[in-house]
Amino acid sequence: MLSVEYRRAPEHPFPTPLEDAYAALNWLHEHAAELGVDPDRIGVMGDSAGGGMAAALTILARERGGPRIARQILLMPMLDDRTTTPDPHIEPYVVWSYDDSLTAWPALLGEAAGGPDVPATAAPARLRDATGLPPAYIEVGQLDVFRDEDTAYATKLSRAGVPVEFHLRPGVPHEFDSIAIAIAFDSDVARRAIADRVRVLKSI
Predict the structure, then answer these.
(1) Is the N or C terminus of the chain more exposed, i.e. has fewer CB atoms within 10 Å?
(2) Over the stretch 151-181, which tens digit does the pLDDT of each residue have?
(3) What DSSP string runs through 73-89?
(4) Three-state DSSP class for 44?
(5) 129 exposure class (CB count in 10 Å sphere: 0-12, 13-18, 19+)
C-alpha cells in the first residue's frame, strides 16, 4: 500500500489535493519495477473524502491518458457537493452530518460548491460519461449521508459498461467499520465488509 499524504483543504483547495494524488500515481508507475510492483495491477482506494479522491483520480487519469488504474475501491465515498437535503430516515443516526458536508465542500471548492461549474474531477457525481473507467468496488452504509449519491454513482458506472460490485451495508452509518460505539468495528457487518475489501484487493 502506498499512502498518499496529499495536501488538504481549506489550506489547499481543489485541484491541489487531486494533483498531489495524480503525482503519486505517476511516481508509483515510474518506480514500479524497483518496488516490485506490477504496473498492470495498481488500484486506487479511499474512504469518505478519500473515496471521492480515488474516484476523481480515475477520472483525471482517463482524461490525461494514464497512468493505468486496474481497480477503484471506493468505501462510503463523498461524491456529490449537491447533497444538502436531509433524509429524515438517516438524520438521527448520522456520524458525518449534512452540516458537515455543507462545511467541507466549500472548503474544497470555495463559492463554486453546489453551483453549475463544478467538474467531475472535483465532485465525481458530476460525471456525465463514465465510459472507460476502471472496474469499481463501492460500498456504503444504509444510514450514511452518502448513500444515495453512492448508489447513483454505481448505477452510472454500470450503465457505461464499467464492471461494478456494489454493497449497501444494512443498518449502519458512515465509518461504521471504525467507530468505537459498542465496538462496531468488530460487528458482523464490519467483518463482512473488511473480508470483501481484502478479497477485492487480492483479486487485482
Answers:
(1) N
(2) 999 999 999 999 999 999 999 999 998 875 5
(3) EEES----TT--S--TT
(4) strand
(5) exposed
48 assigned to active site: yes
Sequence length of the chain is: 204
Nearest CA to 167 out of 181, 159, 177 is that of 177
Residue of 117, 123, 150 lying closest to 59 (CA atoms)? 123
CA distances from residue 174 to 16, 18, 80, 92, 168 in whole angstroms, order as listed? 26, 23, 15, 12, 12
Q: Is 110 helix (H, G, I), strand (E, B) or coil?
A: helix
Instruction: Determine the residue type at 95.
Output: V
In DSSP terms, 74 is beta-bridged to 46, 138
Catalytic residue among 47, 80, 81, 174: 174
- Please give the model's pTM, rounded to 2 decimal places: 0.95
Helix (H) or strand (E) holding 153: helix 147-159
* CB 114 within 8 Å of CB 84: yes
Residue 167 appears among annotated catalytic residues:
no
pLDDT at 185: 65
Q: Residue 164's beta-bridge partner residues?
A: 136
Say which of 47, 48, 101, 150 is annotated catalytic: 48
CATH of domain 16-203: 3.40.50.1820
Give residue limits of the domains in the chain: 16-203
Annotated active-site residue in 144, 150, 167, 177: 144
